[in-house]
Amino acid sequence: MRAAVCGRPIRHSLSPALHSAAYAALGLDDWAYELIEVDEAGLPAVVAQLDASWAGLSLTMPLKEAIVPLVDEVSEFARAVGSVNTVLVRPRTDGGVRLLADNTDVEGLVVTVGAALGRGPGAGPAAGELRGVVLGGGATARSALVALLRLGCAEPVVLVRSERRAAELQVVAERLGGRVRVRGWEDLPVATAADVVISTVPAQGSADLVERLLPGPAPVRWPLLVDVVYAPWPTPLASAWGGPVVGGFEMLLHQAVAQVRLMTGLEPPVAVMRAAGSTELAVRAG
């Protein structure tokens, strides 16, 4: 069986290390996981060659929305979130395949943020009182927004460069029975009043956040920062942050755990996958 991660750029991806380690631990010796460098224009050709020898695809930017019209079915949850990071390939009785799209990014963030805060989805004495902020307005920001709603944040705040980009976030929140407040980049200091801040801003844009957020007086208590970037690490924002920081490796790990579960039907070896990813990061760091 074959599986792969698709995106552009993709050479930095840790997904092959995570998935391959899971296959080995589960005794799936005839499974292989690869990298496919592809953008939106090339994605239809990749999807067209999927057959019964494939288990599925992992999708990163810029493909999380482009994949939707290319599959047979999008899960109700992924459609509500408006972002897909997983395609499952299921054989049909006529010899063809059916492509099912899903989202495991939300689960990855719920597990990551919940563990860092010591709470699970909707659990804990402060459930419903969590103050959460999302930085950025793209596809991953939608998953971050939904994760905060699931963790009990009644009205997440989303900070974006252009409020026009965040229109879909309003729709996502409404689909799931939640609310969201959208503010511009000029309101970045509000982030330091939250309990958790999830940054979905690419590493190259992180320095701009530092310039806008940190010249002012330091907050009395810094919130938890979850930065979805894991390479290059640390980002300028993570380096300058005055409180606890969790990097994108944790989110990547737990969304990959969910993908392995969906693709194989087996319970993933989380500790083995964590060790493999950590080792690969250490090797890259020299």
Explain what this protein looks like in three dimensions.
Helix 4 (105-117) packs across helix 9 (248-264) and helix 5 packs parallel to helix 6 (167-175). The chain is built from ten helices and twelve strands. With 286 residues, the protein is of the alpha/beta class. The model is unreliable at 122-127 (pLDDT under 50). Helix content is 37%, strand content 19%. Strand 5 (86-91) and strand 6 (97-102) form a beta hairpin. A six-stranded mixed beta sheet has the order 2-1-3-5-6-4. The longest helix is centred in the C-terminal third of the chain and has 17 residues, at 248-264. It folds into two domains: 2-103 and 250-285, 3-Layer(aba) Sandwich (Rossmann fold), CATH 3.40.50.10860; 106-246, NAD(P)-binding Rossmann-like Domain (Rossmann fold, 3-Layer(aba) Sandwich). It has helices spanning 15-25, 43-48, 76-81, 105-117, 139-150, 167-175, 203-213, 236-240, 248-264, 270-285; strands at residues 2-7, 32-37, 54-59, 73-74, 86-91, 97-102, 132-135, 157-160, 181-184, 196-199, 224-227, 245-246. Keywords: Amino-acid biosynthesis, Aromatic amino acid biosynthesis. Pfam families: SDH_C, Shikimate_dh_N. This is Shikimate dehydrogenase.
Question: How would you summarize what this structure contains?
Answer:
The protein has 286 residues and is of the alpha/beta class. The chain is 37% helix and 19% strand. The longest helix is centred in the C-terminal third of the chain and has 17 residues.
